[in-house]
Amino acid sequence: MAANDRQEGGGHYKKMEIEVWDYIARNNIPYLEGNAIKYLSRWRDKGGLEDLRKARHYVDKLIELEEEQIQLNEQAAEFCEFDCDECDGFPDADDDTIEDRLAKLFAIIEGVRARAR
């Protein structure tokens, strides 16, 4: 018996035209988004307001991660002295080696992550 032929714990997904997990898998939707979709698709038939809160919880986590990534990108852009549209990826460093510059960049990233915690 295929997994789609049965449902554990109720029938709230079986009445949908497309199984939620099939939609998520076929569209390569990542974990956080997939769980939000799962809870949003079933809230009326299973968990009610609790499922809406769970969906919001996953969206809140996704927002936190995206905000952190934006902040990291902004920090990296401030650190970078080169115009990437014109740079071949191997700029001539005055005093710093590429390794030194990468070490500084990683220190900035770790600092941003530490402040985000």
Total discrete domains:
1
Largest sheet: none
* Secondary structural class: mainly alpha
Query: Termini distance?
Result: 45 Å
Q: Count the strands?
A: 0
Shape: elongated
DSSP strand (E) fraction? under 5%
Radius of gyration, taken over Cα atoms and rounded to an integer in Å: 22 Å
Q: Report mean pLDDT, rounded to a whole number.
A: 78
Along the chain, the helix and strand elements come as HHHH
State the share of residues found in helices, binned by percent: 55-70%
Report on the architecture of this protein.
This protein is mainly alpha-helical. The chain has one domain. The chain is built from four helices and no strands. The chain has helices at residues 20-26, 31-42, 49-79, 98-116. Helix 2 packs antiparallel against helix 3 and helix 3 (49-79) runs antiparallel to helix 4.
